[in-house]
Amino acid sequence: MIKQLKNVIAIQIFDAAPDSPLYESLQAQLESAERAIHVIESN
Fold first, then answer.
1. How far apart are CA 16 and CA 9, in angstroms?
2. Is the dihedral of CA 8, 14, 16, 20 positive or negative?
3. Interatomic CA distance for residues 28 and 21, integer angstroms
4. Which of 39, 11, 21 is nearest to 30 (CA)?
5. Cβ count near 6 (within 10 Å)
6. Per-residue DSSP letters for 1-43?
7. pTM score
8. Is the dihedral of CA 9, 15, 21, 22 positive or negative?
9. CB 37 within 8 A of CB 4
């Protein structure tokens, strides 16, 4: 589920204007999803 979310966010980032608030928010969400995946896969 988190990997699917990560893929959706990555697509949305591609369409967002760089340096926009939306882009920054999506980037933060993507980083959080990647951290969650790392934690889950490490355990």
1. 10
2. positive
3. 11
4. 11
5. 18
6. -HHHHHHHHHHHHHHSPTTSHHHHHHHHHHHHHHHHHHHHHH-
7. 0.84
8. negative
9. no
Instruction: Report the distance separating Cα 11 and Cα 34, nearest Å.
Output: 15
| Residue with the two structure tokens 């926009």 | 20
Q: Could you identify the residue written with the tokens 């760089």?
A: 18
Count CB atoms within 10 A of the CB of residue 3: 12
Amino acid at 7: N
Both structure tokens of 9: 């966010």
Model confidence pLDDT, tens digit, residues 5-38: 999 999 999 999 999 999 999 999 999 999 999 9
